[in-house]
Design a protein that fits this description.
- The chain folds into 2 domains: about 80 residues, K Homology domain, type 1 (Ribosomal Protein S8, Chain: A, domain 1, 2-Layer Sandwich), CATH 3.30.1370; about 110 residues, K Homology domain, type 1 (Ribosomal Protein S8, Chain: A, domain 1, 2-Layer Sandwich), CATH 3.30.1370.10.
- The chain is built from 10 helices and 6 strands, in the order E-H-H-E-E-H-H-E-H-H-H-E-E-H-H-H.
- The strands form 2 sheets. Strands 1-3-2 form a 3-stranded antiparallel beta sheet, covered by helices on one side. A 3-stranded antiparallel beta sheet has the order 4-6-5.
- Helix 8 runs antiparallel to helix 9.
- The radius of gyration is 26 Å and the shape is flat.
Length: about 230
């Protein structure tokens, strides 16, 4: 039995689901059997055979994400190798006074959820604010946009400053992506042009590609051992 994470007691029912359906879904996705302590919120797993390295590494994140407010179906995405979870403890930024935590929660969410929604739309990440924790889930590109914005708000920056910086980062990210695509296209065009300028080049390259590779087991010329 391997310990995965601990979830708040009011999220245990979400983790189990109606008639245990959510629990079963997670077990099938992770390829193991979950053990949930309803008193402490501790969640452990018994793997079925040798666990997949990626699933073993990311299963705790799935449980933590559910415990921090993500729906189970969203949290399951963390088992993919290009989706990641990042969490922040608001108290590490504003102290442990409850009123300061509530104030920062409000700043992160914004009026009618506007700030959180804008960060999610621009970064294409998903964000939850649960208790004293902020959790963000997305791919590397998305997290590189969302995390500076979240940290900016936690650090006391104005919403306008954070959103302006987020839009600038997104613009730079798009430009880098566009430049990479342009470079790739130019490389392809240059290769095609070279082939067209050298008669018989493409046919010769195809012939070399189609030739059977040297069998170093049978051909003594492929060996450099002295007799």
């Amino acid at each position: 039995m391997e310990h995965l994470s601990r979830v708040p007691k009011d999220r245990i029912a979400v983790l189990i689901g109606k008639s245990g359906k959510t629990r079963k879904m997670i077990e099938e996705a992770c390829e193991g059997d979950l053990s949930i302590d309803s008193k402490t919120g501790d969640v452990s797993i018994s793997w079925k055979g040798e666990p997949d390295p990626i699933k073993r590494m990311k299963a705790p994140e799935v449980i933590s994400a559910i415990g921090r407010g993500f729906s189970p179906k969203r949290a399951i995405q963390l088992l993919e190798d290009n989706v990641f979870l990042r969490m922040y403890d608001i108290r590490q930024w504003v102290g442990r006074q409850p009123n300061q935590t509530r104030r920062m929660r409000s700043r992160l969410i914004g009026t009618n959820g506007r700030i959180r929604t804008l960060i999610e739309e621009i970064s294409r990440c998903e964000i939850t604010v649960y208790g004293s924790t902020v959790a963000v889930m997305g791919d590397n590109d998305g997290l590189s946009l969302a995390t500076p914005a979240i940290e900016g708000i936690l650090g006391g920056s104005e919403h306008s400053t954070v959103l302006f910086g987020l839009e600038q980062d997104k613009r730079r990210q798009r430009l880098r992506s566009k430049n990479l695509e342009t470079f790739s296209d130019k490389s392809s065009i240059a290769s095609d042009s070279f082939e067209s300028m050298v008669p018989g080049f493409s046919e010769a390259r195809k012939k070399m590609t189609d030739e059977k590779p040297l069998d170093t087991e049978d051909d003594k010329s492929g060996s450099f051992d002295e007799e």
